[in-house]
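ENTRY TYPE: paired fold submission
RECORD: A
CONTENT: sequence, then structure tokens
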Amino acid sequence: MEPTLEGHILADRLKEDDKKIVRDLTKSKMLPRNILINLKNKRPHCMTNIKQVYNERQQIWKANRSDKKPLQYLILKLEEHKYTYFSRTQNESTTIEDIFWAHPTSVKLFNNFPTILIMDSTFKTNMYKMPMFEVVGVTSTDLTYSVWFGFVTHEKVENFVWVLKMLRKLLTSKKNMPKVIVTDRDMSLMKAVGNVFPESYAMNCYFHV
């Protein structure tokens, strides 16, 4: 016989009381690893692993979405919380190709501090393998803030041009344009910046220089 039941599916599964704890802590935006620590502190002989916590969280998201698809649920929440968002579909299709959104406070900050923008894509952050493109601004006190972010299907010039044109729409005063835009050595992004913000000074980040 095994000295412990650790690793066995039956022993690993969450009890009903544990599931309630996971639900409550998930609502409090606690990280999965901290939820697991909390469970083990309450039940010292608990054999649950991090995978069970992730599985339960996935069930919570599915229950919240009801019969809606993930993208439908995302748009519902964006509208509910009054986010500014833009999306476009592929030619002659209903499949969304690019989608971007900005928090109301981010839009206000962007209009107050549009001088410096930093843009870059992040990979391998989602199950759809789509690059997440983020734009970050800098305030007059050298603090950074997220302007907006979202997902693109391809890192091509036309995708970036559309994204930056939508970004430009967030500015209420067309005279108050970004003075400096920092990017990596992505040639498609650099061309799009020159196309949409010709009045801005384009720079490469120190790492890529």
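RECORD: B
CONTENT: sequence, then structure tokens
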Amino acid sequence: MRFGTTSMKKKLILGLLVLGVGLVMVPMFAAFEAHVINVTATIENALRVHAAAIDFGTVFPQEVILGGFSVETSDSFSATTQQRVKKIDYVVKQKPKPRVDTPENTEFCHNSTPTNPGDPNDPYYATCYPILCSYLSKHPKYVEEGDTGIDAFHDWQTALGTGHLDKTLGIDLSDQWIVDLDVPCFGGQCAQDWTHQGWELPAGLEHQVFGCDIWVEVTNVY
């Protein structure tokens, strides 16, 4: 009986050793064959925006001055060889303008606010212009499907214009936008016919240069 027990133990140990060798060999066989799937993509912008800087120069309260820009499909999007996507939705929004366009200044202006908006010496204004955005209306010159504008005297942080381009029939490949500056007055100096109470500028900012960046952002391509 003891001999039989010893023999069984030897067989069990041998079997475990064989199993261990088999487990070690599995990853070695798995590495003997590999297949490569090449993935590439050319990334292009869907839109082209035509706009030089809009410089209204020196303006006066209650003037209305016009500017503008245009938006169109890019060459790669409108190419006849590209038929997979045909429509673009985009928004027109506005953000505070840095005095010097660098990524650091842009991030600061977008994420910070002046401690005292009416003080031209507030540290915020060393990097960013006083904000002009609320006084700029933005309207499509020709209203087509999906195009909506923004009137002046709005909350620049939430107000959005929308645009839509569709190359399906080749008839909506560009939009023209009109930008109106509806010049506000300074607090305590407004004319009697001023109708936008609550939108006056702080009197301490008189003689300052104001600024705003208009952003055109694609929201959907389909």
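NOTES ON RECORD B: The radius of gyration is 32 Å. Helices lie at 2-30, 75-78, 103-111, 124-127.
STATUS: closed
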